[in-house]
Amino acid sequence: MMDLLTSFDLHASLSVNRFVGRMPTLDALLHIVERNSVFKGAFSMMLFWGLWFATHHDRARVRARLLATLLVAVLAVFVGRALAVTLPYRPRPIHDPELGFLLHDGLTSQTLDGWSSMPSDHAVLYFALATGMFLAHRAIGTVALAHAIFIICLPRVYFGLHYTLDIAVGAAIGVAMSLLLVPALGRQFERKAVADFALSHGGLFYPLVFFTTWQVALMFGPVRDLLRDLAAALT
Question: Model-level pTM?
Answer without folding.
Answer: 0.91
